[in-house]
Predict the structure.
Amino acid sequence: MRTNKEKENVYPVLLGGQFRQANYRETFQAYNPATGELLPETYPVSEWPDLEYALEESHRLRLELASCPPERIAAFFDLYADLLEKNKEAIVRQANLETALPLEPRLNSSEFPRMISQFRQAAEAVRERSWKQAIIDTKLNIRSIYGPLGGVVVVFSPNNFPLAFNSVAGSDLISALTCGNPVICKAHPGHPGTTRLMSELLLEALKKSGLPLSAVQMLYHFKNEDGLKLVSHPYVAAVAFTGSKKSGLALKEAAEKAGKLFYGEMSSINPVFFLPDILKEKARSLAAELFTSCSLGAGQFCTKPGLVVILNDEAGENFLRELTAIFSSQPAGILLSPAVLENLKTAANNLKEAGAKLLAGGQPLPPPGFRFQPTLFSVPAAKFLEKPGLFQTEAFGTLTLVVLAETREEMLLVAQNLEGSLTCSVYSSLSEADEKFYWQIEPWLRLKCGRLLNDKMPTGVAVTSAMHHGGPFPATGHPGFTSVGIPTAFLRFAARHCYDNVREDRLPEELRTKNPNGRMWRLIDGNWTQGDF
Amino acid sequence: MRTNKEKENVYPVLLGGQFRQANYRETFQAYNPATGELLPETYPVSEWPDLEYALEESHRLRLELASCPPERIAAFFDLYADLLEKNKEAIVRQANLETALPLEPRLNSSEFPRMISQFRQAAEAVRERSWKQAIIDTKLNIRSIYGPLGGVVVVFSPNNFPLAFNSVAGSDLISALTCGNPVICKAHPGHPGTTRLMSELLLEALKKSGLPLSAVQMLYHFKNEDGLKLVSHPYVAAVAFTGSKKSGLALKEAAEKAGKLFYGEMSSINPVFFLPDILKEKARSLAAELFTSCSLGAGQFCTKPGLVVILNDEAGENFLRELTAIFSSQPAGILLSPAVLENLKTAANNLKEAGAKLLAGGQPLPPPGFRFQPTLFSVPAAKFLEKPGLFQTEAFGTLTLVVLAETREEMLLVAQNLEGSLTCSVYSSLSEADEKFYWQIEPWLRLKCGRLLNDKMPTGVAVTSAMHHGGPFPATGHPGFTSVGIPTAFLRFAARHCYDNVREDRLPEELRTKNPNGRMWRLIDGNWTQGDF
């Protein structure tokens, strides 16, 4: 399955429908996070000519992709998923090597099946076509539908999901292609080998499906300034980014200034509120549940609970004792990279300096591997409220900050001073005890997040059309769009196309009198129907 | 109905639920465009403290508005529409005085009824609730719905629709309020008196409806730098702007850099393609149809055809002759302001200097009033293609540029070099003659515009959910959203709110088992239904 290494043993990039030697001056290697050592494979940092080549290729076929039959896109998703499944063992092994994420259950039984499920769901949604939200006014003969942007979509991979959020296999790729846009993928430098294996299968699937071979191109890495130049290039229509706030904001500014759409998932602290009475009922099991969520993927989830808010009463003290005991007794997970480790050290130091109290952990562990103790901080609500921004700095790793409120009013003040997050969770008593307080706090939390949870940790993100994985700035750039959930995630890369007085035989199939497949839902004169008209 | 004038005879602004004296150093007066003279009424240019006051007030009640029952918002729309209808004569007279737009049919029979219709349609949509697009996954107990942004929406009025696009009575206000957001309106300095009359009714309707009185506030004017400060203020969530590209881009950059949503309608050239055979069939009537569209509202429509593309054959020459005759013989309309007149002069000069040939008009008319001759230019396609950007500069006024292509290939090249527009129109023979060429040109036009028309001028924009009044950059900032069309226009100011495992009695009514009104469409487990589950 391997491509032959090019001279100098630097892996080629996927450009114009083939793996070609990159135009590069610098190279990089990924780490084995479990040993802390560099892996032997060498990958190129592409210079601008590679990016330009990719742009020209993508641009050239934008019309072909825009008019591509849905069946061909669906076939590509299925063929690609088939190939991924056939090569599961090699892919998962490589991902484990490059990320140290556990084979079981994470890679084998959770992330890989999720990646496959996304392709299968997408293939079905593409065939069914309801995602296009056809709206038809038969009286005025005006009809609208979602269609392609007519430009390139650039997708940036995050470090923390080498499979299901990989730029060459995740929801961004699926969504951009479904809408009929060519895609340029940037791998994450933490797992280039995983990306390489999947890209090879992607090219095979492109060939089998009959899609244009340059529909998806992939570069391993490029310089930051070339990234800014890329996202603001005239051929680009939209950008999908999942990663750090700093990089995200720089790309966002460059892209939007040039009139491009930017969808970024940039930072989220995911507050969890335990209302007073639930802690009286089951402090111990909730402490365990919280730790499990905080330490999932070694705390490297976008939805990791990074802030916990409780009342500093007897039940609260008891809960904090339980939590401290768990954080103190559990082993450290392995972090993805030296950068994540450094960032976590900085975060812990910043919290200390800002006056948070260290209750457990707080130190990196000696080699081998990038490890940091499970770390628990607490801070009085009054102190949190002095510098709410500082105490809400996201840090990957098993680290969380418990805010201790002296009164319910203080808890409410904390809620009011939250920044935008992907999620907010509220645990409360099943009795009536917490109900009144729930209704005081809920309206604030509702406006601070995309997904509000009851009695549940935020780390599971189900792939369903009812899911919303997004949230108010700075969690993302637009709180109306989700990056997870099919077909809802598609809409980020769609333009609205209206047809006014257009002759019946010139309309897209989906807007004609006859329903194109008897299954597509359409809004005809105010009524949703799967029928003709 | 008039508010008493404050001292110095400067009209007060609408802040915090009452008309108060503005904090101002400078004042302004509107023109009577028909005479070219200033009208006597004096309006304030607010200093920052007015903007800050408005922000504080709006911010204070964001939670109250976010949880406001739909019935109350619908009642406000109906009450406001009732009051507007009762005061139609005064409003329309004032609008005519300040804009010189004709009473008949424009203001009385077209724009006023359209404004009222928008409120009535909105009231119905708000009561029906389908716009919230509830998606429910009953198996996973995950549910999502559109809800408020949790911040202020700032609305900027354009100059060209004093009624139906006025910031205090148009689709932006309706949409922002429907989603539960407080609104700060900036009047257009061209028609402050019209805005004043409507704002007084707005306040009365707010009082009668029981909405918080600061839900909508209005300032007449402020400095550009204060506008930039306003749209990037922490309390602001989104901005709606309709106006010039220059102002729009400056506001867009400031807003987006601060993480705010920006919806701008900034510029559109609205190309009209006459395919070769249709011109052989009916050159004369098409020339008349084109002139009517170009001169509607004295050419001051966002959807005015500013570019016409034809084949330079015998039929094309004939068409151009007809068109020249009409442009040369028709009277000049009155322009909205000296600024529009200046801009039009500049546009005509730029076209001349760039090498376009003047076929009719081209000169301003002497006083009284702001008038410019109906103006027709032509340019060979080859020359257009040398500087396509320059030849696509939008200018309000009865001015259009005919691009003369020597071949069909050149027509296609022009299509390929278009910028994003709100609309593209194609006229073609009803016989098969133009069909093949239609299919060559359509894919390019489709990606360049929001609304594609057949055999129809773009200047009518019907208010229906199937309408799309938006388009690719630089026509607007996001091609997925429309500023006209109910309820589709609402979604610009909505965040997606997901409820994960939230207890039934804590869910918004729209997401509970029982359908809230038996009429709301909801997507339950993949099927649209008005039923319970």
In short: Residues 271-454 of chain A form a domain with the Aldehyde Dehydrogenase; Chain A, domain 2 fold (CATH 3.40.309.10). Residues 1-6 of chain A have pLDDT under 50 and may be disordered. Chain A touches chain B through 75 residues (CB under 8 Å).
